[in-house]
Structure formats: structure tokens, C-alpha cells
Amino acid sequence: MNKKGFLFTALLLVGILVLAGCSSSNKEEAAPADNANANTIQAENGVLNVEASNWKFNGEKFVVKSGADVTINLKNVEGFHGLAIDELGVNIQGDGSATFKADKPGEYTIYCSVPCGQGHNDMKSTLVVELFAMFGKPDETRV
Ligand SMILES: [Cu+2]
Predict the structure, then answer these.
(1) How far is the CA of 123 from the centre of ligand 1 (A)?
(2) Pairwise CA distance, residues 88 & 11, whole Å
(3) Which of 23, 49, 126, 143 has the fewest beta carbons closer than 10 A?
(4) 75: CA distance to ligand 1 center in Å?
(5) Rounded to the nearest whole angstrom, what is the distance from the C-alpha of residue 91 to the centroid of ligand 1?
């Protein structure tokens, strides 16, 4: 086998392992209430479903991967709220959706953009954009 062929096979194997790892870790189990990760919500297939109530979002942290389009669906389950992320040009008011591209890894503030009453100023969560790294070499695979 030549060098390129070997490399290809190796990458293929790594890919299969990564896929296998992902699918097994996707199983969600009921987390205990005091679990620090219980309030972290991962985007699934680029979709983030956010629920707003008086006066909080359903997660403290929402995690997406960099580089891909992300769609946020906001659903008001109690009261009337909005969801804005200034740096990404997102501002949903009431039930609705917004799509953006999260190019820069980092943390962004999610806040309610509708004056909704006494807890309005506390309606803040964090959007975490994680660097999407393929095969562990983020700098070389970034476009
Ligand atoms: Cu508000």
C-alpha cells in the first residue's frame, strides 16, 4: 500500500471511530437536577430549540459548532419573550426562528429582547460556539 492509500485508510478508520463515538454519546439520559451539565443544550443537526418562560431560557448554555448554519427556534412556553444575540444579528421576538452562521468560536450573550416584566434583565444565557475540528487539526481544516 502506498503512503496516500495508507493515509486515506487511516482517516477513514478515524472517521468511523468518531462517528461511532458520537452516536453512542448522543443518548440522553435523565440527568440529576444538581448535574452541572443539565443546563447545557447542544444543537442537533444545526438546530437549537430554545424555550422561554418567566424569566429564563431553558438552558444556561447553548452549544453549537463553528462554521455551519445554525437555526434557532424560539418557543414561548410562558409569557412573551424574545431572543437576541447582538454579534450574530439574531433578534427573534415572540415565537419564531433565525438562522445564522457562527464562524468565530467563542461565547456570546443571549438575552431577551422584549421588555417582559420584572425578571427581564435576568433573562440571559450563553451561546457557546465550539471550534469544529475534523481529525484533530482545526487550523488546517478551516476554510
Ligand atoms: Cu424580556
Answers:
(1) 6
(2) 34
(3) 143
(4) 13
(5) 12
Domains of the chain with bracketed CATH? 41-141 (2.60.40.420)
Residue with the larger pLDDT of the pair 30 and 110: 110
Report the separation in Å between the CA atom of 106 and the middle of ligand 1, taken as the mean of its atom positions.
24
Helix (H) or strand (E) holding 49: strand 47-53
How far apart are the C-alpha atoms of 112 and 53, rounded to whole Å?
10
Percentage of residues of the chain with pLDDT beyond 90 = 64
- 6-37 pLDDT, tens digit per residue, is 666 565 555 555 555 544 444 444 444 444 55
Sheet with 40-42: list strands edge to edge. 40-42, 61-65, 124-130, 106-111, 82-85, 90-93
Closest listed residue to residue 112, CA positions, set 127, 91, 129: 91
CA of 118 to the centre of ligand 1 (A): 9
What's the gap in Å between 39 CA and the centre of ligand 1?
Answer: 20
Q: What is the pTM of this model?
A: 0.68
